[in-house]
Amino acid sequence: MIINLDDAYDHTVKKAMEAGIPVVCYNIDDSQGAEGNARMAFIGQDFVTAGYLVTKRLIKEYRIGRGDHVVCPVEHPEAVYAVKRYEGVKKALDEVGASSEVLDTGAISLEDTLNKITQYLLGHKETAAILAMGGMPMEMSPQAAEEAGMSGLPNAGFDLTKKIITNILEGKTLATVNQQPYYQGCFTVLQLYLNRKYGLLPCSINTGGAIIDKSNAAIVLDLADTHR
Q1: Which single residue of 28, 47, 132, 228 could bond 137 by disulfide (Cβ 3.0 to 4.6 Å)?
Q2: What is the three-class DSSP state of 79?
Q3: pTM (2 decimals)?
Q4: What domains does the chain contain, in order, with CATH numbers?
């Protein structure tokens, strides 16, 4: 199961576990981990670490520093993945004295996402870079910068689609973090199977902190939107 909001599934998971039904969380976990939910394990990304690493890369490549402003668009700012990713992003930016702001883009459509980022940039010409914390704003950030008259605005972020990889290969985006969702699905099912058949206890696995940039993007292009 996916725990996108703390406390939303606490009672349900507790009842399942008490009834002898094993529960493994994947993709998004309770922000407090095992202390916040009775699930047996989490198969997914260490959001804080991933946010910190990709932001440090952005800072290094474009010399983001004191006085610079970075916008962080994301589909659901209140969701666990967004809160924890921003924790890592903000830590890296705070270290160099850069300011940051989370932009709620929603998840209505790519066109709506494009419009919201573009409008933000038009009203915040001081923006030095974009750190997109979800796949939809990650896809649209280069185009939004172009439409706002800020073509070439540095951007990086999270998730992996053909559009994101193409942007990287064309030099429009610096890098993205691959959370390897294939692992998330595969290991979750495998661990539940082994628990059922052999009584093996599920264990948590950190599936993603790998940086995809121009040096290795071509490797994953054909598999993006399918197995990766």
Answers
A1: 132
A2: coil
A3: 0.93
A4: 10-45+180-208 (3.40.50.2300), 47-178 (3.40.50.2300)
